[in-house]
Design brief:
The complex is a heterodimer of chains A (about 350) and B (about 325). With about 350 residues, chain A is an alpha/beta fold. Chain A contains twelve helices and seven strands. Helices cover about 45% and strands about 10% of the residues of chain A. Chain B contains twelve helices and 14 strands. Classes of the chains: A alpha/beta (about 350), B alpha/beta (about 325).
């Protein structure tokens, strides 16, 4: 599409450097994953409202560019650890929405056979070692995965996703230090969505930016616009290349925002409607679509096709999940331990 | 000395097990504070760093939470880490990774993964460590599904159980009583395994059953010798495994002796003895009981410093003798 690309190029003042690395099909694939996350979470919210789902859920609507941008350079050999707000990470890492939605509904066909639910969603075959119900719980585990990767010597890396709330947990500090002293191939990704439940970061954190803490652990700290796919992806490529080359860990802070509440219990008393609306105007998916159209990497027709494809995929996933069997109550203790080998 | 009766100390037996695992399985790594050149706070790892190098015997910073999580993450991704806590008391800094993560990851992920990590925990009182270096917290961990918890009492068992633990696909916590480290006993050469789910009958007797674990097994055996001189024959069941819990061995013994004394160093209330007692109360052995069940556990206090107080805080041989005597004489 040389003509379209050069024509579009004229309208874009700045061509973000990450597009030197990405083909048109890479961009469409990234968009597909962002749509998948959005549609998955809308479906999750809808099923909750209709009383079809159980427990709680934490939606990352508005944060899709961070999850997808960070996962762009990763392969199935690379590990991630995720958070309680982990649907996006799981999909960005390549998960299939059928077993994901089945897990969300607590079904035996789910990724975790209905034992984990939304908060423990995982896809170890693609390197997602799991979402986590404990703030900061995944960081040391990612360091362990980076330790294994370094020993294997095949260039794999481990990414720890965590929120701004986790940066005041001891696990954050211990993990960054361990990764730094051993130059482990770890990438620490703080999704700073401004609030740890209701507590604004300025009320909880002594430094202005979470990356201010990188220097304490002698590693690069990079702030990116978490709602800007290209910005996030470029930082991730740089950090992953550094890690694969044996040069050690990086801390990336993605400034973003969750437009939904913390969980189903949230009454949004700690932020204003205006603030939420202003962030909705910065929707990462719409911005990405405009950018790739302007750059000539995709047409509006192609974007519409992605949208339709993902909606169909999600409808099939919901149907699959609804029709799937629930776990057998007699198997409540299954998989606590591994089967005996004798 | 022939191979059959070769003797090693408990610490040497652990080191031998670690060396065998390091030699035979390249996935095995040791992690912990000062386990390298220093040789470990109790000289358990000793010269292993010189034999296997710093890439396999890894000094970690004083970061128990991070270190335990490092071991969990490494175990999840193909390694077989053995993480040494300098004292079991320090594991409280890592409770999150042990209890919320290691124990539950396999289950939470529907059996898709497993976490083959071993946590070694020097435990117990008797060395003047006072309240934060002397606790017996085995029962805490034994309450957590997903963990396996063992407390070997002999050099033979600790070597075989540690080798079993390292080969096990699930997280295993190994409690090592600090007073046992210098105790010697017969240890076979080479690789052998001791099961992680079976109690051991240490002494046969007809008059009462004493269920004990770790150092208390030895105190119970000493008490049994004294009782024998008085004509009281105690049967000693060394529990060895707290999770899973070998109830069958206890039930079988109580049916024979009709009396039960549980001896353990952890705090008495809501501890190991409660489980031993309840197990018997719920079992067919209940109808065989000729006396109420007795528990002898640690005092309802932190472990104190002064040696006089420290001794008073946990069951001693004379306490076991007195309790067993009253039980056998049909106190009730």
């Amino acid at each position: 599409m040389p003509d379209r690309a050069s024509a579009a190029h004229a309208h874009v003042a700045h061509r973000p450097p990450v597009y030197l690395r990405l083909s048109s099909s890479d961009a469409l694939d990234a968009l597909r994953r962002m749509h998948r996350i959005r549609r998955f979470e809308e479906a999750a919210e809808d099923s909750y409202v209709r009383g079809l789902s159980y427990g709680t859920m934490h939606l990352s609507i508005g944060q899709e560019a961070t999850a997808v941008g960070i996962c762009m350079p990763l392969t199935d050999a690379d590990a991630i650890t995720s958070t309680h707000r982990g649907h996006g990470h799981c999909i960005a890492k390549g998960a299939d929405v059928k077993p994901m939605f089945a897990e969300f509904l607590g079904k035996e066909t789910g990724y975790c056979k209905g034992r984990g639910g939304s908060m423990h969603i995982a896809d170890p075959a693609r390197g997602n070692l799991g979402a986590n119900g404990i703030v900061g719980g995944g960081l040391p585990i990612a360091v362990g995965a980076a330790f294994s990767a370094k020993r294997r010597g095949e260039g794999a890396v481990a990414v720890a996703f965590f929120g701004d709330g986790a940066n005041n947990e001891g696990a954050f500090h211990e993990s960054l230090n361990l990764a730094s002293i051993w130059r482990l191939p770890a990438i620490f990704v703080c999704e700073n969505n401004q609030y740890a439940m209701s507590t604004a970061i300025a009320r909880s954190t002594a430094v202005r930016d979470v990356v201010d803490r990188a220097s304490a652990y002698a590693m690069p700290g990079v702030i990116v616009d978490g709602n800007n796919f290209a910005d996030v992806a470029e930082a991730s490529f740089v950090a992953v290349e550094r890690a694969r080359a044996g040069d050690g860990p990086t801390l990336i802070e993605a400034k973003t925002y969750r437009t939904r509440g913390h969980s189903r219990s949230d009454r949004n008393r700690y932020r204003t409607r205006e603030e939420i609306e202003s962030w909705k105007q910065r929707d990462p998916i719409a911005a990405f679509e405009n950018e790739i159209v302007a750059l000539g990497l995709a047409s509006r027709e192609e974007i519409a096709a992605v949208d339709a494809e993902v909606r169909a995929e999600m409808a099939a996933a919901i149907e699959f999940a609804m029709e799937s069997p629930t776990p057998d109550p007699a198997e409540v203790t299954r998989d606590v331990y591994s089967p005996r080998e004798d | 000395m022939s191979e059959a009766n070769r003797e090693l100390s408990y610490a040497e037996a652990i080191r031998e097990a670690l060396a065998i695992a390091l030699e035979t399985d390249e996935r095995v790594v040791l992690m912990g504070e000062d386990i390298g050149l220093y040789g470990g706070a109790f000289q358990v790892t000793g010269d292993l760093v010189e034999r296997f190098g710093e890439a396999r015997v890894i000094d970690t910073p004083i970061s128990e939470l991070g270190g335990a999580g490092l071991a969990v993450g490494a175990a999840l991704t193909g390694m077989r880490p053995v993480y040494e806590f300098q004292f079991s008391d320090f594991s409280m800094l890592a409770m999150e990774q042990i209890v919320n993560q290691a124990a539950k990851i396999r289950y939470m992920l529907g059996g898709a993964v497993n976490v083959p990590v071993v946590f070694r925990m020097p435990t117990g009182s008797g060395l003047g460590g006072a309240a934060q270096h002397s606790q017996s917290i085995e029962a805490w961990f034994a309450h957590v599904p997903g963990l396996k918890v063992v407390e070997p009492s002999t050099p033979h068992d600790v070597k075989g159980m540690l080798l079993s633990a390292i080969a096990d696909p699930d997280p295993v916590i190994l409690f090592e009583h600090k007073l046992l480290y210098k105790m010697k006993g017969p240890v076979p050469e080479g690789d052998y395994r001791v099961a992680l789910d079976k109690a051991a009958l240490r002494r046969e007797g007809r008059d009462l059953t004493i269920v004990a674990t770790g150092i208390m097994t030895h105190r119970a055996l000493e008490a049994a010798s004294i009782l024998a001189e008085e004509g009281v024959e105690a049967e000693i069941v060394d529990l060895r495994c707290l999770r899973p819990f070998d109830g069958e061995a206890i039930v079988a013994s109580v049916k024979k002796t009709t009396r039960l004394l549980a001896v353990y160093e952890g705090v008495k209330t809501l501890g190991l003895g409660a489980e031993v007692s309840a197990l018997v109360a719920e079992s067919e052995a209940f109808d065989y009981l000729d006396a109420p069940i007795l528990r002898l556990g640690g005092a309802e206090a932190p472990i104190p410093y002064s040696p006089v107080l420290e001794k008073a805080a946990v069951p001693q041989v004379e306490d076991i003798v007195a309790a067993a005597r009253s039980l056998a004489q049909g106190r009730a």
